[in-house]
């Protein structure tokens, strides 16, 4: 069977400017940061990003790679407001398509099920309908006759997610408390790339319910230890809070210069020496 | 902190806890410190059937013992199924209970980008939503919110029966008092003031006219048991006093 292992650079080489990219994880939790850093090293731009936003959104927005953002929020969790997302938004750097968390989920669900939309009660009466005038409503064909928002499918060209373990065929396992929506991201995308903490030979001893992502929905697998850094990847590691704070308080060019100008190995050693300096 | 005098923060805890009274077996989702203390107090005392989370993906008892799994997907099902009562924060809140946490200023080019609407639209249309405002001011209690995230009574009515069907805002608690929408037009009413606060003070800090009952009651006193639970079991470090300092 096909060995789907590749490098972060291989993943990025399969992407194009102008694409619609979904990014898994939630806030500052289990974000595919090694893949996002690889994206930042490329010249890809003009992206439509679909994300339950965290520093993935902040990094890409600060670097000017986003044309359109589809999101319900952007947060660093322990730091409630994502500073680079805020700054970019306040200078009008990208178009925001703001929807709510539930609309987002139904949009992923619709895309994964090859439906044009799914009805959802949320959105009605809120300004999401005002700022998103393309949203339509739909009337129930049954006796209740209720009106709902027809949440359009969030179909994407590619999805990037980070999991704890994967095999070479593309099966992915999560070991943390929450799957977030990573399996839906993979199923909602034409191609999906899974980075993982460790590639394993098989899942012989795995608890079956942890085997979240199936290989038929995965195009490439990247072994990226610490690949969610600085977001959390519990139980393998928690969020690097001091480093996240540094990210949130350092002017972007300075942060990018020190941490993002080399490859992933360079990033890791730059983070390591920064931590040493803090001792 | 005087051992015999109830502090403002403790009245706030009582007012938040009472929001979950008689709610039965629903998920209490407190956002913010004082609502969290309130939800735990309610479960300790008059609402033992409440479900609480660890803030991540587990349903836990008061002692932290795990009793269930609640990842985001199932949490959203609890919201849409209506078996949840959330107490959210608000950067802005208006007369009919419209709430904003998205941005300040024009949405196209905001002066201050905040969180985004998060789950406020789905929450308000599907399960009861109360609000907690730790610092009552005209900056929060505004005539009109800049971006309707949580849906208020007038907006729900304008959107039709699907929007109003499960819409309910039981109460708003601030550091000054308790508010509800028990008026003919569902406009905000001052339902009670915390001891030490005058009605005039509340009106002066609110950016729209408040409906007033004939006589404005005061927030009830905590029982001796409640005070002991707050001070020695739930918040022994006194973190509540930092969120709402003594007036």
TrEMBL record, chain A:
SMART domains: CoA_trans. Keywords: Transferase. The keyword Membrane does not apply. Gene3D superfamilies: 3.30.30.40, Glutaconate Coenzyme A-transferase. GO terms for molecular function: CoA-transferase activity. Pfam families: CoA_trans (PF01144). Coiled coil: none annotated. PANTHER family: KETOACID-COENZYME A TRANSFERASE, SUCCINYL-COA:3-KETOACID COENZYME A TRANSFERASE SUBUNIT B-RELATED. This is CoA-transferase. It comes from Streptomyces angustmyceticus. The lineage of its organism: Bacteria, Bacillati, Actinomycetota, Actinomycetes, Kitasatosporales.
UniProtKB/TrEMBL annotation, chain B:
This is CoA-transferase. One of its GO terms (molecular function) is CoA-transferase activity. InterPro entries: CoA_trans_fam_I, NagB/RpiA_transferase-like. Belongs to the 3-oxoacid CoA-transferase subunit B family. The lineage of its organism: Bacteria, Bacillati, Actinomycetota, Actinomycetes, Kitasatosporales. The keyword Transferase applies. Signal peptide: none annotated. It comes from Streptomyces angustmyceticus. Keywords: Transferase.
């Amino acid at each position: 069977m096909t060995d789907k292992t590749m490098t972060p650079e291989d993943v990025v080489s399969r992407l194009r400017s102008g694409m619609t990219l979904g990014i898994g994880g939630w806030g500052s939790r289990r974000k595919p940061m090694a893949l996002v850093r690889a994206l930042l090293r490329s010249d890809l731009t003009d992206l439509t990003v679909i994300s339950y936003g965290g520093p993935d959104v902040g990094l890409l927005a600060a670097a000017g790679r986003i044309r359109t953002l589809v999101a319900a929020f952007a947060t660093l969790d322990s730091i409630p407001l994502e500073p680079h997302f805020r700054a970019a938004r306040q200078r009008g750097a990208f178009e925001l398509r703001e929807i709510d968390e539930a609309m987002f989920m139904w949009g992923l669900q619709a895309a994964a099920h090859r439906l044009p939309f799914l009805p959802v009660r949320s959105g009605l009466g809120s300004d999401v309908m005002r700022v998103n005038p393309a949203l339509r409503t739909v009337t129930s064909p049954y006796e209740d006759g209720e009106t709902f928002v027809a949440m359009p499918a969030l179909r994407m060209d590619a999805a990037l997610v980070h999991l704890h373990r994967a095999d070479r065929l593309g099966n992915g396992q999560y070991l943390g408390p929450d799957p977030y929506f990573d399996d839906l991201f993979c199923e909602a995308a034409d191609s999906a790339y899974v980075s993982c903490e460790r590639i394993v030979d098989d899942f012989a001893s795995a608890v079956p319910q942890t085997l979240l992502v199936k290989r038929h929905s995965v195009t490439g697998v990247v072994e990226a230890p610490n690949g969610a850094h600085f977001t959390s990847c519990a139980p393998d590691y928690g969020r690097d809070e001091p480093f996240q704070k540094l990210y949130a308080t350092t002017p972007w060019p300075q942060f990018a210069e020190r941490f993002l100008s080399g490859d992933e190995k360079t990033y890791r050693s730059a983070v390591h020496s920064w931590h040493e300096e803090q001792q | 902190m005087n051992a015999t005098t109830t502090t403002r923060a403790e009245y706030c805890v009582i007012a938040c806890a009472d929001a979950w009274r008689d709610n039965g077996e629903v998920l209490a989702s407190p956002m913010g410190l004082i609502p969290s203390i309130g939800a735990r107090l309610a479960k300790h005392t008059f609402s033992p059937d409440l479900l609480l989370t660890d803030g991540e993906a587990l349903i836990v008892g008061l002692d932290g013992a795990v009793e269930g799994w609640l990842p985001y997907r199932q949490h959203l099902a609890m919201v849409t199924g209506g078996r949840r009562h959330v107490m959210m924060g608000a950067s802005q809140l208006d007369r009919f209970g419209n709430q904003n946490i998205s941005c300040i200023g024009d949405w196209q080019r905001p002066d201050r980008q905040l969180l985004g609407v998060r789950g406020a639209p789905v929450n308000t249309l599907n399960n009861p939503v109360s609000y907690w405002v730790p610092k009552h001011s005209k900056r929060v209690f505004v005539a009109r919110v800049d971006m309707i995230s949580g849906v208020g009574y007038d907006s729900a009515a304008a959107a039709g029966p699907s929007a109003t069907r499960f819409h309910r805002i039981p109460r708003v608690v601030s550091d000054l008092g308790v508010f509800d929408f028990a008026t003919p037009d569902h406009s905000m009413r001052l339902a009670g003031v915390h001891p030490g606060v005058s009605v005039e003070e509340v009106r002066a800090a609110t950016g729209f006219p408040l409906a007033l009952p004939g006589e404005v009651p005061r927030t009830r006193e905590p029982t001796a048991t409640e005070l002991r639970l707050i001070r020695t079991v739930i918040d022994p470090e006194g973190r509540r006093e930092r969120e709402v300092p003594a007036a």
